[in-house]
Every structure is written in C-alpha cells, then in structure tokens.
Predict the structure.
Amino acid sequence: MKRLTLGLCCLVILGSCGVRERVGNGLDGVRGALGNAFASSDGRGLCGDPSLQGEVVGAVPGKLNGCGIQDAVRLHSVGNVRLSQAALIDCPTARALEVWVRETAKPAVGRRGGGLSGLKVAAHYSCRTRNNQPGAPISEHGRGKAIDISAVLLKDGSAITVEDGWRKRRDGKALRRMHKDACGVFGTVLGPGSDGYHEDHFHFDTRRHGNGAYCR
C-alpha cells in the first residue's frame, strides 16, 4: 500500500510539473479549436502573460538546417503598445519584449507625445544567416528568438527613429537608455555603432552567452 501511495504521489507531482511547463510558455490548451491565444485556458494570456496579445502558431519549419520555431506565437501588441507588424517569435522573446516595454521603453519616452503607443518592427522571424552573409551561422531571427525595432511610436502620431534620432540630443538620450537597459533583459543587444549592420534599428534576441549578455 505504501508503494502504491508513493507511486501515485509521484505521478501527481510529475503531472503537475508538466502542466506548469506548458502554462509557462503560454501554449497549454490553446491549440486546435481555441487557436486564438488572446487568453489561454488558465486565463493567464498569451505565453502566460495577460499583457501579451496575439495568437498561437505552433511549429514553424525552417527551410535551412537550424531554422524554425518549435512553439511559435504571433505577437500583435504588448498591453496598449501596438506592433507595426505582427511578430512571429517564441514565448521567451515575447516575454522579454514585455519587460523591456514596461521597464524601459515607456519610462524613456515618458509623457512625450502623449506617451508610447507602438513599436515599428523592422524584422522578426526570417530563416536566414546572420546579416544575410553567405556561410555565416543561422541568425537568431531564424530561430524565432529575435526582433528588430527601428522606431518607437507616440500617441500624437510622431515617432522617435533609431536612424535619425540616435545622434540628436533629446531623441538620442531616450534611445540610448532603451538600448542600454535592454542589456540583460535580452541576451544580445545591437544598435548604431555595433557592427555596421544595425545603424537604423535595435536588434534584440534572447540567445544566452556564456559570459553574460552581449551588448554593442
């Protein structure tokens, strides 16, 4: 009897762990008929975060070896901050973007132009090599772990663009804060002056490096 009881307890514990894991990535109970993931079956929202709005996509196969997303979502907005185009990414990247929007982008903009209303997405999932260079490793964009932001959009219809604002006094101060404080929230942060490929946008991805975040 003791063995039977112990065995049942183990099954319950293991089952609970499995549920927590699925809920943690926001994919539990939202496939099939539910499809639309504005709210998951436990009411916690897309990727387990009620502030993330979008839909579950599921597995995305890649055309190149190393590309693809196992559990993809299509993110439309983060709270009241709308993305200019829906971003096909994985849940850890969506959650990291939410943290950055809430803790960095919104405070950096403040009340200017009525506050932050949107993000101009320059790129999200794309099965390709890094910077589209022949022979280079697969980009984190090809794994659904990256998003590029070229501007932040304000409620009055104006925008602060990375390309034009980086070297301006007022815009640059806000943009540099957004760039700096993204480091650690994301595993890789690139922007103007990093490598010549990111002069007009921020590249954020959730790849983790052995020596900590890589930020340039």
Remarks:
- Residues 1 and 7 are 10 Å apart (CA to CA).
